[in-house]
Structure formats: structure tokens, C-alpha cells
UniProtKB/TrEMBL annotation:
It is a multi-pass membrane protein. The keyword Transmembrane applies. It comes from Laccaria amethystina LaAM-08-1. Residues 356-375 are annotated as: Disordered. It is found in: Membrane. Keywords: Lipid metabolism, Membrane, NADP, Oxidoreductase, Transmembrane, Transmembrane helix. Belongs to the short-chain dehydrogenases/reductases (SDR) family. InterPro entries: NAD(P)-bd_dom_sf (IPR036291), Sc_DH/Rdtase_CS (IPR020904), SDR_fam (IPR002347). CDD domains: 17beta-HSDXI-like_SDR_c. This is Short-chain dehydrogenase/reductase 3. PROSITE patterns: ADH_SHORT. The chain crosses the membrane at residues 21-44, 50-71. Catalyzes the reduction of all-trans-retinal to all-trans-retinol in the presence of NADPH.
């Protein structure tokens, strides 16, 4: 049964209600210094003394969350070469040229069309053309797993459009096979699209960003790069490699190329409701859907554009539970196995099949499935 169908079996009460909504509400209320600041004042205005235990308790809580948010805020400013009071300025979208790999479908397609509305040039690199009416989107056929093709297309981009300022490595492919069922060409394709293409895009376009000492590089990876699951060995390993590449890129930009103003954003989503993983199986329980919701493509696109607007290097985890995936392996082994069982990840791919559209793409002379990183 398809993932979307399984989720539609849940109670209507939970259709638009999940833990992420609660987290957003709490972040702006119970965990917001601005909101909590008024609680002890409320008790004082009601006649309690400043030394009353209730007032002291709420005051201590206010101080605690204020310190937490201050450290997080200042750490972010420091990481992005800001100051205690001033961060990076707003991004001037009128001067941007964006390169998106795998921009003809899924999250990449939505992102390309959304950015084009901002009147910026969007260069889509894919083996299949993007269907769009936006004149700001320029498509180049390119097998990004091959350095020769990326190098040739990069020269065309420089000559016909200009030096890109934003690079979004978004293309992805999934095989959905057990380790022993993977053919050598399957493994080569997965790493070619999911990992090697990142190196080729950087080799082609990063020198121009270094010359200007500014720009933004977005790496779309996956939570599976931290945790992994059965029947996804090549995919998991390729995503882990992309995460490691993003880290190393940050250190090299800061300490070797001396270009701290070139921002790097890592995007690690869980399952996204797109066609790449359309046939995976999830538990149909409303409670499970509440704590482990899928992510809508528009949510991913909004977060990526927000990161570009903010000009802050950052790591984006979607949805909320994905924030805990980097720490799962630090749990005792019996708890780690329990979390793996609870997620159902090892059996989600049991009935996986590629959609007719994606099977058709394998008949292309360049048999790649270019799309979003849909986990």
C-alpha cells in the first residue's frame, strides 16, 4: 500500500495535527522568553511578593530559557561572523543565479519554480527537462554523475548566464534493494548521483564563489545518513557521505580558503511526500502519524528559501523528530534497537517498487532518476 494511502487511513482528527504543530506553539509560548517574562509579573500584580516561591520559580525558569536562547542566538551570530547585535544583511535576490541539480521533479521542481518567481535566474541540471512556464528557469541536460558532462555544462552556464551564486545539490536516486540484490551498476548510479555529483558541482562552480568570497551552498541529504535502515544500504551510505562532505567543506571555506561568508546549509529531511518513495509502507496508526509525520515538499522548500534569506550557515532537520537522529547511536544498544523497531524503518521498504515514471527514466541512455532527496 502506498505511503499516502496508509496515512489517509488515520483518524480525520489527526490529519493536520502532529507533534511539529505542538512544538511550534510551545516555542512561541512556554519556551519563549518574551512570553514567560510576563508570568512572574502577573503573579506580582496579583499581590504575591517578589520573594514568594511561585514568583521565584517562574523567574528562575525565565532566566534559564533566556540563557538558552541567548547562547543559541549568539552562537549563530558567531558562526556566521556577525556580532552580538548585528547579523548578516538581507540577501539581494536581484543579483542571484541559482543552480539546482535534479530540478525537474519533486522538491527540486517546486524549489526552482518558487525561486523563479523572485525574478532570479534558476539553472536546472537534470537528464529530463523541467516542465514550466517560468522564463527565468534555464534547463541544461546533464548527467551530473559524470564529471565531463558537468564540466561542459558549467562552461555553457558561465558563457550564457554568468557565475552562479547559489548552489543547491538536490538530485537523488534510490534503488530500494537488499545489499546482495544490488547490481554493481546500481551502486555506481547511487553514489554517482547522491555523492559524486556534489564533488563535481563544487569543482565546477565553487571557484567562482571563492573569487567573490560570497555565496551559499545547500546540500540536501537525509536523516538516513545518520541512522540508516534495511534495504537502503547504498542510499544510506551515499547520504552519510554527503553529510561528511558538507562538514569538511565548511572547515575548508573557513580555514583554508578564508571565505567564511560563503554559507553552507545542510538539509536532512525524513520522509517527504513525493514520488520517489511513493510505494513505501508506514504504520497506519494515528498516534504513529502524530509523532512521525511525513513532510510536505512545500515545507522543505520554505525552509531552504528561509535559510538563503537569512544568510546563515545551518543544519535543517525536518520534521521535529529528525532533530534527534544524530544522537540515536549514542543510546545503549537495547534502546537503540527499540528506536529502530519503533520507527518501522527496517520494513518500510519491503514492498517498495519504482513508479512507472521512474522505471521509464531507467530506459533513458543516461539511466538516472533525478529528483529531490525524498526520504
Amino acid at each position: 500500500m502506498q505511503a499516502e494511502d496508509r496515512r489517509n487511513e488515520a483518524s480525520p482528527v489527526f490529519d493536520n495535527l502532529d507533534v511539529d504543530l505542538f512544538v511550534k506553539v510551545l516555542a512561541n509560548t512556554a519556551f519563549s522568553p518574551f512570553f514567560v517574562f510576563f508570568i512572574p509579573l502577573f503573579y506580582v500584580f496579583q499581590g504575591l511578593k517578589v520573594t514568594h516561591p511561585v514568583v521565584l520559580l517562574w523567574s528562575a525558569y525565565y532566566v534559564a530559557i533566556s540563557v538558552f536562547w541567548f547562547v543559541k542566538w549568539y552562537s549563530r551570530l558567531y558562526r556566521n561572523q556577525g556580532s552580538l547585535l548585528l547579523g548578516p544583511g538581507a540577501l539581494d535576490w536581484g543579483e542571484q543565479i541559482v543552480v539546482i541539480t535534479g530540478g525537474s521533479s519533486g522538491v527540486g521542481e517546486l524549489l526552482a519554480n518558487t525561486l523563479a518567481v523572485r525574478n532570479v535566474y534558476v539553472v536546472v541540471l537534470d537528464v529530463k527537462p523541467i516542465i514550466t512556464e517560468n522564463y527565468n528557469i534555464i534547463y541544461y541536460k546533464c548527467d551530473i554523475s559524470k564529471w565531463e558532462e558537468v564540466e561542459a555544462v558549467a562552461k555553457k552556464v558561465f558563457n550564457e548566464i554568468g557565475q552562479p551564486t547559489i548552489l543547491i545539490n538536490n538530485a537523488g536516486v534510490v534503488q530500494g534493494k537488499l545489499i546482495l540484490d544490488l547490481a554493481p551498476e546500481n551502486i555506481e548510479q547511487t553514489f554517482g548521483v547522491n555523492t559524486l555529483s556534489h564533488f563535481w558541482i563544487l569543482k565546477a562552480f565553487l571557484p567562482g564563489l571563492i573569487d567573490k568570497k560570497s555565496g551559499h551552498i545547500v546540500t540536501v541529504s537525509s536523516v538516513l545518513g545518520f541512522t540508516g535502515c534495511a534495504q537502503m544500504s547504498d542510499y544510506n551510505a551515499s547520504k552519510a557521505a554527503a553529510i561528511s562532505l558538507n562538514r569538511t567543506l565548511r572547515w575548508e571555506l573557513d580555514n583554508r580558503y578564508r571565505c567564511p561568508k560563503i554559507r553552507t546549509t545542510l538539509v536532512c529531511p525524513a520522509h517527504i511526500n513525493t514520488s520517489m518513495f511513493e510505494t513505501i509502507t508506514f504504520p497506519s496508526s494515528a498516534i504513529w502519524n502524530f509523532f512521525f509525520p511525513s513532510v510536505q515538499p512545500v515545507t522543505v522548500v520554505k525552509r531552504i528559501i528561509a535559510a538563503l534569506d537569512e544568510q546563515h550557515s545551518q543544519t535543517i532537520f525536518l520534521p521535529f523528530f529528525a532533530n534527534f537522529t544524530p544522537y540515536v547511536d549514542h543510546l545503549p544498544s537495547f534502546l537503540r534497537d527499540f528506536v529502530q523497531w519503533l520507527s518501522g524503518a527496517d520494513y518500510a521498504m519491503s514492498n517498495f517498487t519504482k513508479t512507472p515514471e521512474r522505471r521509464g527514466r531507467e530506459l533513458d541512455p543516461n539511466p538516472m532518476e533525478m529528483g529531490s532527496k525524498e526520504d
